[in-house]
Design goal:
This protein is α/β, with parallel strands linked by helices and about 200 residues long.
């Protein structure tokens, strides 16, 4: 069974708003490798519209750095699933729009053979955390303090306590394997108030 890996940039004070941080070449190279090691990426509409058309165009933009082009090529080569009730279609290749049943779609993706599933953003991952479907968390902590802004866990009740356990070249990466890995999660039902 494939793992669902949630990866996100965050500031030292936990802000995940993309406007409150910058990603250097080292962090972008990390995300490039993480993308290469995945078989599919999952997005919500908001994150999708931040990524496209920027990254597809960066692959051929002469002003892009080598690190940006490398990430863009990795991004362009992977299958994508976008959860949205408002998007009906996309012209971007290898992308499928899904309007309903987040839980069922993720469970089906996890059962398929292939590389792991990568999810980013805030809204969709927050729902997946509540559903207990995230198998591994990867937090890339940047060296800045935002002071204000959206924080990932403001409206999410974590199923377990997360502990920082890995430092790589100045980037803190939090990896936590869920106790759900290897279990038959197809029978798990959301708790009161959760929706799929």
């Amino acid at each position: 069974m494939r793992k669902l890996i949630f990866a996100i940039n965050t500031t030292l004070d936990g802000c995940v708003d993309h406007t409150s941080q910058s990603v250097d070449d080292e962090a972008l190279a990390y995300f490039t490798q993480l993308t290469r090691d995945s078989g599919v990426q999952v997005f919500g509409r908001k994150t999708w519209q931040l990524m496209v058309p920027y990254w597809p165009e960066a692959a051929t933009d002469p002003s892009s750095t080598k690190t940006e082009r490398d990430f863009a090529v990795a991004f362009n080569s992977i299958d994508k699933v976008v959860f949205s009730r408002s998007l009906k279609s996309t012209e971007y290749h290898e992308t499928r729009i899904v309007a309903t049943d987040l839980r069922g779609e993720i469970l089906n993706l996890k059962k398929k053979d292939g590389k792991n599933i990568l999810v980013g953003g805030v809204d969709i991952p927050s729902q997946l955390i509540q559903l207990g479907l995230i198998d591994e968390y990867r937090f890339v902590v940047g060296p800045n303090v935002a002071g204000a802004g959206r924080r990932l866990f403001d409206a999410v009740n974590l199923p377990e306590t997360l502990e920082l356990n890995l430092v790589v070249k100045g980037i803190w990466i939090r990896t936590r394997r869920s106790s759900m890995v290897g279990r038959d999660i197809g029978r798990r039902t959301p708790t009161s108030g959760q929706t799929a």
